[in-house]
Amino acid sequence: MTTSGGAAVKSAPWKDPSARPYVQVDRVTKAFGDFKAVDDVSLKIYKGEIFCLLGASGCGKTTLLRMLGGFETPTSGKIFIDGEDMTGVPPYERPVNMMFQSYALFPHMNVEENVAFGLKQDRIPKAEIKERVATMLDLVKLGDFAKRKPHQLSGGQRQRVALARSLVKRPKLLLLDEPLGALDKKLREHTQFELISLQDKLGVTFVVVTHDQEEAMTLASRIGVMNHGEIVQAGTPSEIYEFPSSKFVADFVGSVNMFEGKLIEDEPEHVRIASDDMGGTIYVSHGISAPPEAIVWAAVRPEKIFMSTAQPAGTDNVVRGAVQDIAYLGDLSIYLVKLPTGKVVRVTQPNTSRHAEAITWDQQVYLSWDATSPVVVTR
Amino acid sequence: MKTAAYLRRFGISGRGLVVALPYLWLLLFFVVPFVIVLKISFSDIDLAIPPYKPLLEWVGKNSLAIKVDFNNYAFLFTDRLYINAFLNSIKVAFISTVLCALVGYPMAYGIARSKPATRNLLLLLVILPFWTSLLLRVYAWIGLLKANGVINNVLIWMGVINEPLTLLYTPFAMYVGIVYSYLPFFILPMYANLEKMDWQLLEAAEDLGCRPWQAFYKITLPLSRNGILAGSMLVFIPAVGEFVIPALLGGPNALMIGRVLWDEFFSNRAWPVASAVAILLLILLVPFMMWYQSVQARESAGAR
Amino acid sequence: MNYKSSYFIITCLAFGFAFLYIPILSMVVFSFNASKLVTVWDSAHSPTLKWYYALLGNDEILDAAWISLKVAVINASGSVILGTLAGFGLARFSQFRGRFTLNAMTTAPLVMPEVITGLSLLLLFVALEQLIGWPAGRGITTMTIGHMTFSMAYVTVIVNSRLATFDTALEEAAMDLGARPLKVFFVITMPIIFPAILSGWLLAFTLSWDDLVISSFTSGPGSSTLPMVVFSKVRLGVSPEINVLATITITVVTLMIVGVSLWMARRAKLDKAAD
């Protein structure tokens, strides 16, 4: 998986403490009765970013987005956009536009009228509206469809109308609620890259809500993983994937094998964990901050596990097991290997050669991984 | 926007104005009138215009006397006519409701299970009479039921009977008229309920060993309970106070409370008595209305 | 989806529709009957249009129809405004003081026996006249107010249930693009729910046009509506002119309902395609 998203990626402004955030969410809480949909969230988003809010349904990501758009009022906390306090500013006066999950295209207006709608509200001269709508429709390759009604368009075309309509006002910030959720898989992949190149061209800051981790990985400059109304980790896609800060993030983004164990060696440059789960010891070549003998978890990604019939050298990071199940997916295969402890480990192997040495059901195999592969999390 | 902010300071918002107009209208023309009816039901009958005495009267210079008169209510409970009319209205409305359900349920079911194109046509056929004047449709039954009416003529022509049957101005005519007029009111909510039904449930039940009638009895019927209740309320409540149908088809002996109220008001000019009848009728019907509203709330909550 | 109907159900439908339509058809047929006995077919002189000419020359009926038309049009227009406001408020504002009361007040007139509504309205008008001198006497104004009070309840229900299935994202999108709430309503919401508003108008018109009981209570001298005239005639027995009136009513209603349904079916198809 490669990160693409956004012009800001190269400069990484979030690493620069003096950089001015474009959007600042300051300790925002939104409660519906006793239920806190968004719980004390603080967030800084920089100009030119594609920031993805990733989480399962009901985690509060859409509520957070709707507060940025002005459709919900925070119970407490403040939102600043380009330095301006947005408290009490209604949606129709915010320098922000939104692309809705259902696209919300006005069914009684044609494509051109839909796109022109926002400009008309600003009383922009007719000639300019015409020109800007035409430019925008060309940009999303819908120039020939200007007179069509929404119901005469395909799903992908409707998505592009919605995008054009929200971009034509040149918002400072574009909010996208599950922008690709209604498209089928093939079209979705294609559209992801179109979205990135469009964002690059226009330089607009994007905040995207999605439940699809692959989509977040592809689009985002940074991802904010949300759970129970809180942002549990924010970082670049590779940070999130390679260095998850908690069991939840490790498990939510990609698949992972989680070994519970006790810290038996805690040095600045390495740790060793005795895991009953695995039935062996895990050696990790980086230090962590945890009290000695603490219960920790070592997370190992399935693609980082080597599988062989011959026993590898060494005693750390090696375990024996029996192949319980194999799923052939074409580009790769998934093996479920059952350890003597009863734990089932997931291993993926690319199918690089057509006649690979065939590991089959019930075969005894050795699993091993590099000392750099596991990530140790304490919660 | 400045004016809006200005108005908001006084607690007036756009939202408030939207609901205020219908709210005040209904308060003035729907709720307040009932208070007045209640007041007049406690007044004495008077030979004046309007034909009742005021409830509040100046006695002497500074004292105001309230004269509450329960005579009108006492009168209703002592004269068998009124009690019989109330009981008879409930009986007639209840039997009519059951008949509407028996005729209407299979029809709503049949419509809900037909193909979309047929369904729209059948629905249209149910709605059409509903849009045609009730008075004229009741009138049509006079032509069908009277001594030399269509039904008698056909039966005599077929040789089934020799003498015309007495059909008009009988309880039978009244039931026919009420069921006929209120049938669409049962079918429409019933259909709305059945239309949302997942018919795969029936297949699942049959797959699990139910016979079709068992599947209907155990799955469809319980799930369509709210539809049956809503439809029944829409028939029962107005039927209790029905005036036109008993007046036209029921003959002089058809004792329905709506008709009694009408006669007290228009023929006897006994406004306080008519008001007392209205209040009692309302007390009788309010529980049903509240039931209807809760059924409706459940229906629309289930729809989402 | 499967479409299964047993013979039992088909028979029920057939009998049910026969029950609904035979009385209506009999009125249509006998409107062309020459005999004054109405239900005895005079095959020597029928079919004839003579009762149609008689109706057109009947000033009492025509005057009453004109009053009914005026009341019905004003009532329908007023009810649509009040009912749309109430329906919109109930559907969109989840919490406001008096929501429960408003909901109850818009449901109750649907099932309230008309004799009660009629009586209570008349007593209100009498009390108001004593108190503030308005309305001076009763007539078209008081009848229209009475009709609006129960018609608006129907419009409220129609608009409210239409808005329940309305994608609120459309309104939010318009607001997001810079339209203020009032403009959103007129440019987005109104055009999309227009079929429901039209249905409401037609229903309110029909309710008023057909109403006998509330009109009888709230009308004054010289303001008899068509149903009131028909009722007094029908009480005396069948009359060929009423058959003609019924036939005309049925024809107009049928044409209107079929036309509107076709138009709405077309619109619904477009809306469905838009989802």
Would you kindly provide a written description of the structure presented here, covering whatever features stand out?
The complex is a heterotrimer of chains A (379), B (304) and C (275). Chain A is an alpha+beta fold. Chain A has two domains: 7-95 and 171-247, Rossmann fold; 255-377, OB fold (Dihydrolipoamide Acetyltransferase, E2P), CATH 2.40.50. In chain A, the strands form four sheets. In chain A, strands 6-7-8-3-9-10 form a six-stranded mixed sheet, sandwiched between helices. Chain A has a five-stranded antiparallel sheet with strand order 13-12-11-14-20. A five-stranded antiparallel sheet of chain A has the order 15-19-16-17-18, with no helix packed on it. Chain A has helices spanning 61-69, 111-121, 126-139, 155-167, 185-202, 213-219, 237-242, 247-252; strands at 23-32, 35-45, 50-54, 76-81, 84-85, 96-99, 173-177, 205-210, 222-227, 230-235, 257-266, 271-275, 280-284, 295-300, 306-308, 318-328, 332-338, 344-350, 364-368, 375-377. Chain B is 74% helix and 3% strand. Chain B has 14 helices and two strands, in the order H-H-E-E-H-H-H-H-H-H-H-H-H-H-H-H. Chain B has helices at 2-9, 14-41, 71-78, 80-112, 116-131, 134-145, 150-158, 171-195, 200-207, 212-223, 225-240, 244-249, 257-266, 271-303; strands at residues 56-59, 63-66. Chain B has a two-stranded antiparallel sheet. In chain B, a hairpin with a 3-residue loop joins strand 1 and strand 2 (63-66). In chain B, helix 9 crosses helix 10 (212-223) and helix 11 packs antiparallel against helix 14. Chain B is globular. The two termini of chain B are 36 Å apart. By secondary structure, chain C is an all-alpha fold. Chain C has one domain: MetI-like fold (Orthogonal Bundle). Chain C is built from eleven helices and no strands. The radius of gyration of chain C is 23 Å and the shape is globular. At the B-C interface, helix 2, helix 4, helix 5, helix 6 and helix 8 of B face helix 1, helix 3, helix 4, helix 5 and helix 6 of C.
